[in-house]
Amino acid sequence: MRRARGVALIIALVVVALATMLATRIGARGAIDQRRAATLLAQEQAFAVALGAEAWAIEILREDAERSRRDSLDEAWAVPLPPIPIEGGTVEGSIEDLEGRFNLNNLVDANGHKNELMFAVFQRLLARLQLEPKWASLMTDWIDPDSVADGIDGAEDGFYTGLTPPYRTANVPITSTSELLALPGFGPDRYQRLAPFVAALPVGTPINVCTAPGEVLDSLAPGLNTFSQDPKQLALNRQKGCFPYLQDVKAAVDPLLNPDERRLLDPMLSESTKWFRGTIVVSIGTTEVTLYSLFERNPAGYSRVVRRTFGTE
């Protein structure tokens, strides 16, 4: 009888232990499922808020087009939206003029051939940012449709297929500046230095001189060092409107170019923009959603969303 009672006690302890483990497991899984459901709900709410902010940005761009044909950094679209309280969190955002950057796809023309003028502009921009000029040839070969390497610095499929792992060049215009990281040895440090000055837009998109950084403006011609000497003064001047005006840029650039270069550069400069990027950050609880929206604004002032990305540009 004592032995039987001892065995029964052990069995009871084992049953209690198993029941406790099972209850703990069910409780833990329930908590995880609840947390997962709450996170998914917060993400859905944040995405809905981001789409609302995106629509608001489109309306701002429409109103701006009605007020002025120029696009400069003193206008409403250029003023960042500070964190605004919403239920359970905040929303903030900004709109950026992507035509104020050097368009990497302009390294080739509409026929896919190397654009010598914009190639030279990009090389000068690289030099101003203390980056090697060889990246201009490598980026051109990444975009152009042919299989002939550009000079001694270029590289086509024959080079890339010999890497580990092997891959091929895109041979088409890029859709994101992050494709620079596909160039052999470019690396994140160079990308972080160059990224604020470049964009990936359709071939032939001009540069808005009203919003372009001084480094981009001074890269338009060899020996030009007018607009990047005093970034603070440049920013101060732009608080009052378009600066410099297109005529002022041409007056500085034209004497440093030959007639053919001036003719080719003229359509690549502008005081207005149709390509913008909205950056919207929504925080709800512990969930944060960042939405990047690429807008194309037509001559009537209405914008459409061409591309959306989350978390990265």
Q: What does this protein look like?
A:
- There is one protein chain.
- It contains nine helices and nine strands.
- It is elongated.
- Helices cover 41% and strands 17% of the residues.
- The chain starts with a helix and ends with a strand.
- The chain has a five-stranded antiparallel β-sheet, with helices on one face.
- With 313 residues, the chain is an alpha/beta fold.
- It has three domains: 54-100 and 272-313, 2-Layer Sandwich (Pantoate--beta-alanine Ligase, Chain: A,domain 2), CATH 3.30.1300; 102-196, EpsJ-like (Ribonucleotide Reductase Protein R1, domain 1); 206-270, no CATH class.
- The longest helix is centred in the N-terminal third of the chain and has 66 residues, at 2-67.
- Helix 2 crosses helix 3 (134-143).
- A hairpin with a 2-residue loop joins strand 7 and strand 8 (287-297).
Mean of pLDDT: 92
Shape summary: elongated
CATH architecture of the largest domain: Orthogonal Bundle
CATH superfamily of the largest domain: EpsJ-like
What is the CATH third-level topology name of the largest domain?
Answer: Ribonucleotide Reductase Protein R1, domain 1
Q: In percent, how helical is the residue content?
A: 40-55%
Pattern of helices and strands: HEEEHHHHEEHHHHEEEE
Distance between the termini: 76 Å
The total domain count is: 3
Strand order of the largest sheet: 1-2-7-8-9
Q: What's the number of helices?
A: 9
Strand content: 15-25%
Secondary structure tally: strands: 9
Structural class by SSE content = alpha/beta
